[in-house]
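Sequence dictates fold. Below is an illustrative record:

_____
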Amino acid sequence: MPLSNRTTHFDQASPLLKALSQTPIHWQSFSHDLWSYAEQQNKPIFLFLGYFQCPWTQEMLKSLFENPEIIERLNKNFINVAVDRELRPDLDVWLQRSATLLDSGSGGWPLCAFIHPKFKQPFFCGHYFDELGTQERPAFSNLLDSIDYIFREKQEEIEGSSKTLLSRINPALSVDLKDTLAKEQISLEALTDKFTQAFLDNVDQQWGGLKSIPKFPHTTMLLCLLDIIVLKRPDNSQTLYPLLMLTSQSIKNIGLNDHVEGGFFRYCLDEYWGVPHFEKTLYDNTLLIDYFDRLSAFNKEGSFSYEAQRALTFILEKLAIKDGLYATLECENFPSLEIRDSQPSSYTFDKQQVCETITNDLWPLTQTAFGFEQAPNHRGRWHLHQWYSVSSLAEKLGLELKQVQWQIEPIRQELRSIRDEQLNASIGDFATIAFNAQLAKVLFKTASQSQNEESINIAQKILSNIQQRWHRNTGLTYSQPAASAVLDDYVSVMECLLVAIQQDWNTQYFSWLVEIQDFVLHHFIKENKFLVSLESDHLEVYDDYKDSGFANSSARLVLVLYRLAQLTNNQDLKNRAKQLQQSTLVLFETNPLVYATALQCALQAKNMPLIVISGSPLEMSQWKSLTQDLTLKFEVFCVPSNDSSILTERLSDGKICAILCAEDDRKKTTNQEEFKHWLND
């Protein structure tokens, strides 16, 4: 549709775009025609990137975009573009990176970017603006006047700024990759040492996590540290592991965990994990579930797998939307920022109300188990913590262990009923392919441990829905016209399929996995660089290999390619994966902790062998049972002998066979004792 000076017909599935379309501002969608249209009009582009559940985004909607003076300025002097960051995460990456480089600040929403259409790069970015302004932040009307003047009178300065930004926005492009890859391979041992030292330099020795406010769990960092301890056993493990456990216990016991209905909040607002930002996202929860399950498999502490299961139950019960997919439980709904910043969260509890609701015989256990003995921690109310294990509670209160175990869940049910009466938080209606694939992956993993058929059915339903959005020629698509599939969507589906065929071999899943592999290799990778999305090709936005809120997609893709190469004995693909892996690590030393996923994937490729077992179902089950306690050290696939055409080795007729695929070694055995020796070596 040609652009014009009227509001575009927005995708009504987006609550943000729907709300913006109801304002008198002439909003446009982001499209390839945008640049030429803005040049013809000789106007700068004002791009508003918002997240509907962000209260600052909603405040700008109300205070600025319904203001007649602001509306007049925007419609007269700018080409106005609205973007929902949920629908276009690729544009989010581009603009957040630009904003950070332009103002040396941090990312976030909303984001207001002013772009010269000729140079296709922002020359000014900011976040929240209002009509009054502050000493640090101009009033929005004054900002618009200044931008209009700069655009008319400072063209050369804008061009210089845009060129500088373009050279910095893709830092990996400034590295001579060919020269780097021609040199001696990057030493994983040296990188591991730098990573662990960076962690020790920045860890909070009292509360765990990193020394920062707000306090994020940094789950990708924890996953990498756990793999370092499991796979490398470094000399400083005795220092690393207690700090890893301190962090994990804080996440589990204090304010990040929802002790009433399960699930984890995004981050905490203080250094001691006391009170969180009250939002529970699908992505954060699936990642923490995976981490807690892996930690429990390593140290055999059941409390972590228990909390992981509670979080998974929360997702399945609370975050389901249409078509068997899942979304995010958004922030609470408040009429204004002032009310949000002054009223207590409805996630918290009034002690007197709880005391009057809980029966007298259960009150001593309630107040000790959930922290009501402590002082209120959120505007005169209690956000619940759970410092004591069930056995510690029994000992402290002089109760039988079984009695505490029997009573704690009914107490939770009462607390949930109190909260449900007052909580005003909505579930998002946008189902991200990546996040749903990651949920399915977690379901397949937990099902393989517990043989839970219901989890398998849910995971298969999610994959079935995603497969309806796949075509081998055009890739993944969203039902929402304004949404664009990104690299993370593809990689997450590939990871899920890989775990699914580990749980139970499925030839159709394997074929689909190979189709996606071919599509990604052809469309997303250019000279050892990874595009963020196909839509971002014309913007030249490449991945920077960091964990920017999410586990890095490129590093995870490389590991999947490496596993597929091992599984099929494809040496060309294996060499390609190794080369790409070097690319993901070239910037590691600039800030090791933000490259946790890149390091973790490289460590797994080098130190975590893959085993293929092929034979009859009964024999495969018997041999696989020998690996039951080694899931953190080996990737194990069982390929039925009648499906073993994917394997290049000639298998012995009628005999069980195992193939060990290590970094630079591949060997086969039909002898169970030799197989056991592999596992214990």
Notes: Residues 401-422 form the longest helix (22 residues). DSSP finds 27 helices and 15 strands in the chain. The domain at 15-169 is CATH 3.40.30.10 (Glutaredoxin).
